[in-house]
Structures are given as structure tokens and as C-alpha cells.
Amino acid sequence: MPVHQIPPRIIKFGPAKPAFPNDVELVAELVPKELFGAEDLTGRLTVHPQGSPVQMSANLFHGGFQAASKGRLQTVKTETSFFDMSMTIEANIARITGRLSSEEALLRAVHVCTAYLPAFLASSLAAPVDIDDLYGNVGSAFFQVEVKGTFERVISVLDTSKTIADFMAKLQQLPEDSAGRVFAAQRYLNQAQWLGYSARHPQQFAGERVLNLHKAVEVLYPHSGEVNKLRSQLSAMGLREDVVELFASLAYIRNSVDVGHPKVGVMGGKEHDDFHLFLVYMTQIVTWLVNHTVERLSQVDSPTVSPSVGGSDLAKTMSRVGDLLKKVEPLQPNSFFKPQGASTGPSTESQVSSGAAGAKNTSKKQKKKQ
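RE: above sequence
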């Protein structure tokens, strides 16, 4: 999971206090249940029982097809190792067992389970996986794993009818040289808000929300990653220095969580809490900025500028992608390799190793420069 999606968690024990070292069982309830044969298929997954007929339904507005025929995958029942512990999965219940020496070792096992087990299962099954609940026992002492609290919802009350009418009137009074950017900023802002609304839990799409909030600001006030240029534009609007710095922080954070660059590690507890608090308030602040920009730029005597359709610069790239898809069989990965005997590049293993080595060497060079 991305670094910002793994909140700090605590272990709450019942009346019975644990003793260590002891035998430990972690129980993870996995979702979606249909992937593990614990519920009928809903059509949202692309997997389907072998040998069964598939009936498809089309969404004529959004496009795309979805399996409409009902069925159920074979119930999962397997035993395997989970690094220094053992794991059994029956239906959507995973049980991880082992002998641990301390509560710190248990907390580490919980962290490894929450951070990596869904990703491992998703990779093996080529379908999304998450943990819906996690609990277990240390000897006979029951425990529940809980998130250490995140701050999420901010409620506002609107006169919705009047707000819509007033806003639409202002949108149609924007100057021609600004209208396109204002319209685009609202698409990015809506995407950020929709990701927050549709997430199963606050952490799920946090990084993608940051990315879209940053895009909303960047399309309004282009700065090409030069944060000082963004500072100058916002300062010229009369914003206080600390408010300007909040927007600058959005650019820095966008580059620090793994929607901007890949990350191997995960956030610590305080980092995680501060990040999610920032995200909640920044959503409100960017919403204000977009609306304030509309208010500031709208002019009663401006001719109405309608949103443009098209204008993408991807035509050449997508044409090439279309040609490549005709040559590659996406559903037949065995055909991805060169014919036997043909010249091949370095093995996957050596590429991964050299990538890691390259990262280490880069790190050493950076340390020397410092």
C-alpha cells in the first residue's frame, strides 16, 4: 500500500492481559469476499469460475462491460508460510500464527500484515484486496487492532439552490483567457472530492487526493514545479505569508508522498496524523481558492465562454499505443518474451538488483555532496 495509506494502529486487549513469549494468532477478514469464494460474484471483478458461461451487461453512459451472470468462485482453502510465521486462508479469513517474544514483536506482525498482506494477495490474484477487520489472540488473551484515530470530515451547510445559481452565473462571466483554466481546476477539485467520498476509509485515496488538489492549484496558477513562482502569484493576490506557505506545502507534499515519486518506506505515526489533518483542511482551502478565483475574475460585461471539448496533446501517443496493442496479446503473457535463441537483455533478477544497487550508489553520492 502507498506510504500514506497505513495509519498507526494500536492493539487493545480485553480484560485478560497477555504474557510473552506466547503463541499468537492474527485473524484478518479479507475483502472483497467474492474474490475468496465467500460471496456470489457481483460483476465488479474480472475473474470468473472456470468453464462457466459469462453474460455481460453494458453501461451505455459511462461505457464498458461488466459480467452480469451470477456465480461463485471456488472457496479458497490454503496453507502457506508468512515469512517467520504460518498462514492459512479459508474463504475470506486469513489466520497468521506463530510464537512471538513481546508486544513489540506483535505490533510489528500487525504492521507487516496490514501494510503488505493485501498487496501480496492482490498481486497473486490480479485483483484488489484489503483487510476489513483484524483481531486475534495472545494465548487466551483476545485483542482487537484499531486505528490510532484520523481526522476526516468537515461539515458545511449551504443554501444549495441559491449557491448553484449564483456560481453558474459567475462561471459564464469569466474572461476568455482564464475560463479554460478555471474549468479545468474544477474538474481536478471534483476528482479530489470524489475520491474522498468513494473511499472505504480515509487513507485509501489520500495520495491521489493530494495530487488532484495540487493540479487544481497548478492549472489556475501555473508554476511548472517552481514553488517560488507559485508563492509570487499568490502573494500578489494579497494572501498572508502563512496562507501562501500552506499552498507551497501542498506542492512539496505532493512530491513527498508516493503519487509524485515511488517510496519504499512508510510514514511514522505523527507524520501520518499530520498528513491527514493537512489533507482535510487543504481540501477546504483549495475549494475556497477555486471559488475565490471565479469570484475575482468574473466580469458582468464578459461574453460567455463555453468549455472547450478536445485539445488533448495525446493523439500521437495514443495512436502509437493503439498500434502496439495490435501487436501485443495483453491476455497472453507467455507471448511477451522474445523467441528462444533471440538476443535478450539482462534478467529480471539482475535488473532489480542493479536498480537497488543504483539506489544505494546514488544515496552514497548524495551523502558525499552533503
